[in-house]
Amino acid sequence: MIEPAKAAFEERAALLLAVRQAGVRDISVMRAIEAVPREAFAPYKFRDLANRNMALPLGCGQTMSRPADLGRRIEALRIGRGHRVLEVGTGSGYGTAILARLAREVVSLERYETLAIEAARRLAALPAANAAALHGDGLAPAPTLGQFDRIVVQAALDAPPAALLQLLSPGGALVYARRDFAEGEKRPRQRLIKVDRIEGGDLRENDLGPHSLGAAAFGVAKAL
């Protein structure tokens, strides 16, 4: 019989291997994923599955992304210790906690009030003092939030809204999953897209390959 502690260690090691096999190579990102306990953010009834590379159900019809997919999005941003990061779609707060280990400050906006409250509680317990989970529409953020060096949208969009792009500082980068509708196909394909604000304020896109995320929604809600 395998001891529980040994089993947990082996599951954690397998999870990190899966993240690496997905193409994540940045050591700082790998260390941040290793340092943040996913089980502390997973719903109680799914905690035994937290150290597996699989999506997990959350409240309000949302899901926790697979760690490998989350790692790809975060690595694409190339976050530095001095960066201010905006996250659109807090969910459980797991991604927020990983971002907090890489950046100077993280502001995360969640459209479902119940998820925002629960995520804020988990982040406080960790603790992640440089991260804030707020109830708000991340696709129509208030200009008063200020400028951000990095923005990650934890959802799929046809294109980032102008209100979000306006918060991206010069030299900044935004990552999201773009939905592309191919002729004759009922379901859209998704691609991981990085948008860089280059010199002069122009935007440049880079396609980082296939990806998968739930569709984004505008507005705010207390719960489903």
Automatic annotation (TrEMBL):
Q: Which superkingdom heads the taxonomic lineage of this protein's source?
A: Bacteria
Tell me the GO molecular function terms: protein-L-isoaspartate (D-aspartate) O-methyltransferase activity
Tell me which InterPro entries the record gives.
PCMT, SAM-dependent_MTases_sf
Alphabetically list the UniProt keywords. Answer: Methyltransferase, Transferase
Q: Which Gene3D superfamilies match?
A: Vaccinia Virus protein VP39
Task: Kindly state a single biological-process term from the GO annotations of this entry.
Answer: methylation
Please verify whether the record's keywords include Metal-binding. Answer: no
Q: Which SUPFAM superfamilies match?
A: S-adenosyl-L-methionine-dependent methyltransferases (SSF53335)
Which Gene Ontology cellular component annotation is one that this UniProt entry carries?
cytoplasm
Q: Which family does it belong to?
A: Belongs to the methyltransferase superfamily. L-isoaspartyl/D-aspartyl protein methyltransferase family.
List the PANTHER family hit by this protein, alphabetically: PROTEIN-L-ISOASPARTATE O-METHYLTRANSFERASE
Q: What is this protein called?
A: Protein-L-isoaspartate O-methyltransferase
Q: From which organism does this entry originate? A: Methylocystis parvus
